[in-house]
Design brief:
The chain has 190 residues and is an all-alpha fold. The protein is built from five helices and no strands. The N and C termini lie far apart (103 Å).
Length: 190
């Protein structure tokens, strides 16, 4: 009986040791996985915020260029200088877009592509590469901010942030839309 008791005791100790080892291994693995997810979420947040910031900078410079080119605004900077600034901002914005492409999920990538398409149209009209009226210009900006809001929603979902914002109320905020030069005057160049 002494041998059987000793074997049972040894088996219990071995089983307890294995159970403790497995439990600790699983907990450590879970901790590492959570830490890795948190680091990736931080990188995603930085990439998303940088991208939206670069998009807004590109839009702002496009507005300045359009207003100077259409003689809606007088500025000390020339059309050429603003065009060069827009080119530089577009390059920075393109790099930020590539970071999003590397880190984001499918929905965020699709939302970013929609922004890229709208920004291209804004840039073309700002530079005078395509004709368009002030109403067309405003419609492009409205679409851009809708696309940015869709990007925000997709990014929030990708990061696991709760809450949503919907509707035109948010889209209409912060638009940089020039007024007509004078009452009844349009900037149609078509």
């Amino acid at each position: 009986m002494d041998t059987i008791t000793q074997l049972v005791t040894i088996a219990a100790v071995v089983l307890g040791g294995l159970t403790t080892y497995l439990t600790n291994s699983l907990m450590e693995r879970s901790r590492r996985k959570d830490g890795l997810r948190l680091r990736w979420d931080e990188k995603k947040l930085d990439a998303y915020a940088d991208y939206v910031g670069q998009v807004r900078t590109t839009i702002h410079i496009s507005v300045l260029l359009y207003e100077v080119r259409e003689e809606i605004r007088q500025m000390p900077r020339t059309e050429h200088e603003l065009s060069m600034e827009l080119t530089e901002a577009g390059g920075d914005q393109g790099k930020a877009f590539e970071r999003v492409m590397l880190l984001a999920g499918d929905e965020v990538i699709e939302a970013a592509h929609a922004i890229q398409e709208t920004l291209a149209a804004i840039g073309w009209q700002a530079r005078g590469m395509v004709a368009g009226s002030l109403a067309d210009w405003r419609a492009l900006h409205t679409e851009a901010f809708k696309a940015i809001n869709r990007f925000h929603e997709a990014a929030r979902a990708d990061l696991g942030v709760g809450g949503r914002f919907e509707g035109d109320r948010h889209t209409a905020r912060g638009l940089l839309l020039p007024g007509a030069r004078a009452a009844g005057e349009s900037t149609d160049r078509a």
